[in-house]
Design goal:
Layout lengths: L11 H8 L4 H20 L7 H15 L1 E2 L1 H17 L4 H15 L6 H17 L2 H22 L2 H10 L1 E2 L2
Parallel strand pairs: 1-2
Helix pairs in contact: 1-7, 2-3, 2-5, 2-6, 2-7, 3-4, 3-5, 4-5, 5-6, 6-7
Length: 169
């Protein structure tokens, strides 16, 4: 059976435009929040598999301390995506795990935050089957990103944040 497509709606372009104007750290928070909202779709079915949760925790650790370890970030992302690949017949659980994998990758490349949001809204669509719930989630994402942008500022702040990043192993 062919897997359903990712959700793409009218807010995609405004979100992508806003991502380019938002601080790197703010994008990390936004991506983590998007992924965490749908994580229960995965965790309810795969109680013992904590790889997607660990990915979000790794991102939140980077947000908090600014220490970037490519090995840690890449490993957490790949682990969350491996968890997604192991999901056989639950599209919402698979998309939730992929959202976590994309979210943690935001620490390395800010644009991965968009992937976290798209997979999260796809998880909502697949879990609820409701267009209204899907649009409501995407609207929440957009409004939350606006708040993050206002709180943390514009690209100049992003450059300052990157300057504070410490690289480790």
């Amino acid at each position: 059976m062919k897997r359903p497509n990712l959700v793409r709606i009218d807010l995609d372009k405004p979100i992508a435009k806003l991502v380019n104007k938002t601080d790197h750290r703010a994008l990390g928070i936004w991506a983590a929040d998007c992924a965490e909202r749908v994580l229960p779709y995965f965790e309810k079915r795969y109680l013992k598999d904590n790889r997607p949760r660990k990915a979000i925790e790794a991102l939140r650790k980077w947000i908090k301390d600014g220490i970037f370890s490519m090995k840690e970030i890449r490993g957490a992302s790949l682990s969350a995506h491996a968890a997604a690949r192991e999901v056989k017949d639950d599209d919402s659980a698979r998309s939730a795990a992929r959202s976590a994998g994309q979210a943690v990758a935001t620490a390395h490349v800010p644009a991965h935050s968009i992937g976290a949001a798209v997979y999260a809204v796809t998880a909502v669509r697949d879990a609820t089957g409701s267009i209204d719930e899907t649009i409501k989630e995407r609207d929440w994402q957009y409004q939350h990103l606006l708040k993050m942008n206002k709180k943390f500022g514009k690209p100049n702040a992003r450059k300052l944040w990157r300057g504070k990043n410490k690289t480790k192993g």
